[in-house]
Amino acid sequence: MISPDLWQPVDGLSLEPNAMSAVTLMDKNVVVSAGPGAGKTELLAQRADFLLRTGQCPYPRRILAVSFKVDAARNLRERVRRRSGPRLASRFDSFTFHAFAKRVIDNFRPALTGYNALDPDYQIAPDTRIQAKQITFADLVPLALEIVEANAYARGGIRQTYSHVFLDEFQDCTKQQYQLIKAAFGHSTAVLTAVGDTKQRIMAWAGALDGVLQTFAGDFSARPLPLYQNFRSAPRLRRMQNRMIAQMDPGAVSPDEEPVGDDGVIEVLAFDTEHDEAQAVAELIGGWLRKGTTPTEIAILVRQQPHLVAAALGHELAGRSIPFRNEQESQDLIVEPIVALVFNFIRVIADDRQPDAYTELMRITKRSSASEEEASRFNGQLKRMLGQARATVRCATFKGGEPEAWRSLVNEFLQLVPQPVLTSLSTGYQQGTRLADLIEHTLVVFERELAVDGDAIQALRHLSEMDAIRFLTIHKCKGLEFEKVVVLGVEEQLFWSTPIVATSEFFVAISRAKQHLVLTHTQRRARPEGFAGRWDEWRTPYQPFLDFAHET
After folding, report:
1. What's the half-sphere exposure (Cβ side, CA atoms, 13 Å) at 400?
2. CB-hemisphere CA count at 13 Å for 222?
3. Are the CB atoms for 245 and 508 separated by under 8 Å?
4. Listing from the earlier edge strand, what are the strands of the sheet with 265-273?
């Protein structure tokens, strides 16, 4: 433990003055309004380190971070672990709103009465509720809110657990989610840090509370601290972003001088058809890869329906053996901890060059509650099993192109790992059949990709976050960043929302790029085969958006 005045940002990072203030405030709530690339995730990670390392969050109390997406919650958790080390990071809980609500329900379930009472082994389903036995994901926050509002014991338990609360991407908070935070921590001693960007509030369709940053500042007497610097994008890209900010929110334009320098590339590419677009973009991507850009640093962003709009590009990439993953098709599967565990196991036994996968595999399966003797025994069993599985895969008789061969090895591995270790990976794995369902879904998806060419490593490359180019909707890309970004289809037929919403969405898309931004549009996109919904074949470029790309 060190004195607060001796603490310095971890890893020698430099923080702008307002960021440093937000990180080191000790007894006052703060709301940070920051643009893309300003380092919101890093700010929260550094604040966690400050609170834990200086004792402002005293043992055994914890820090709660609430995010809106599974990958955002995971990224923040991993960032804190890298900055503070596993010992201090063990007191940092990073959840989505749904996961936090489920934790409240599981800990204080008997407080629910009447129609909302739940059995101990209740399950969660996408859209069907069965009294006492099954709820939906949409029920999680309202039920947690009912518990916190009605039960003083539950409120006290939550407040005793958490001395500090982080609220990430808070501009997208819905009314019920805000009520849950207010009921749990309003008029308490907890110190709250909310970060968000109103220019990125693109979740209005999900009920986002208008002006929630201002509402939070009033309700929690929070000190506002704006962050202006964009540390992500090259100067040329930052100037484009500033041109958009000047139109969207003139008061938020950085008071500093315009970013100078010619670093960064912005291209606007026009095509006759989606096939011309696919060939040109695939060739561009191939060139990036040949020059050393890793697939994970390339993203294809589409306003909506990437499985349709980017179908031709996917076909072109597949023909060139360039791995990609459509996030809409895989949904949130890849960010599930059990999925990462299974994929890392397959990597380790199928490929000799996977030290990171091996390290992560051993870390996740480590039994923190086991005695030293038990842990040593399990570690030996796991290493022997991995050695035997690797030998099996390399045997001439192993049928690597057959799904059942891999399924058998995965099942053997999962039977070796104790069930409490698996269920501890996520709060959602502790009730019902979700864990078993995810394992089965993981194997089915892997087997589907394996059927393409019978190569397990190639199958994982198509599925893995580590090895594949990502096709994302703009809603899905928030909080992420890439060296190269292609915004496919900057057309009126895709950006059909109101001008304010459409502009916010486009701003989110372009601000994901660090070095190279490509904007495309076509004259015609043929109706996808078998698609019966509305589809305008003839397209119109969204000229006001494209004009932002041109420096005057």
Report:
1. 19
2. 28
3. no
4. 265-273, 513-524, 482-488, 298-302, 469-473, 324-326
Q: Residue by residue, what is the 3-state secondary structure of 148-175?
A: HHHCHHHHHHHHHHEEEEEECCHHHCEH
Q: Name the residue type at position 9.
A: P
Asked if 311 contacts 489 with a C-beta cutoff of 8 angstroms, the reply is no
Residue partners of 45: CB distance under 8 A and separation at least 6: 10, 76, 79, 80, 82, 83, 84
Task: Tell me the pLDDT tens digit for each residue of 283-292.
Answer: 999 999 999 9
- The pTM assigned to this predicted structure is 0.69
| 452-461 long-range Cβ contacts below 8 angstroms, 24+ apart | 454/400, 454/401, 455/400, 455/401, 456/346, 456/350, 456/400, 456/406, 457/347, 457/350, 457/351, 458/323, 460/343, 460/346, 460/347, 460/350, 461/295, 461/323
Cα separation, 417 vs 272, whole angstroms: 54
Alpha helices in 162-273 (DSSP H): 175-185, 212-219, 235-248
> Range with the lowest mean pLDDT among 34-38, 115-119, 539-543?
34-38
